[in-house]
Q: What sequence folds into this?
């Protein structure tokens, strides 16, 4: 059934009935989501495609995560002067964990290539977790 799809290339794959049915079902689901959610749903769907492309590149080249983390950390520090009350530090922590997962997946695939980078990210991740827990403890006291 799917062998005929694998043999075709390019736009010829769109001629298969399963692909056409999938596109119709996906468009109906997305149209209901947009009708119910409104503008926030549209903005979320627009952001979704570049985010998926970034995740694809991140898991292909884990050093991209470290570069993005470095750039975003400086941007987050600068934005906290002008935007008050937005937890941009959690975005830095999220990028750190995401790049750490990407590095581990790359290590298990290519057998321990990025050891120094992994050790460095482990130190930064543990420091971030310690800072997070210490802020919880300070607020509890």
A:
């Amino acid at each position: 059934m799917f062998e005929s799809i694998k043999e075709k290339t390019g736009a010829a794959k769109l001629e298969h009935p399963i692909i056409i049915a999938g596109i119709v079902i996906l468009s109906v689901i997305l149209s209901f989501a947009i009708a119910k959610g409104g503008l926030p749903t549209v903005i979320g769907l627009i952001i979704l495609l570049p985010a998926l492309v970034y995740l694809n590149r991140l898991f292909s080249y884990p050093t991209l995560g470290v570069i993005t983390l470095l750039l975003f950390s400086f941007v987050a520090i600068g934005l906290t002067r002008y935007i008050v009350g937005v937890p941009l530090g959690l975005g830095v922590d999220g990028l750190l964990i995401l790049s750490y997962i990407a590095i581990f997946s790359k290590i298990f695939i290519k057998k321990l290539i990025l050891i120094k980078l992994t050790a460095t990210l482990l130190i930064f991740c543990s420091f971030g977790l310690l800072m997070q827990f210490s802020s919880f403890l300070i607020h509890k006291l």
Q: What stands out?
A: The chain has six helices and no strands.
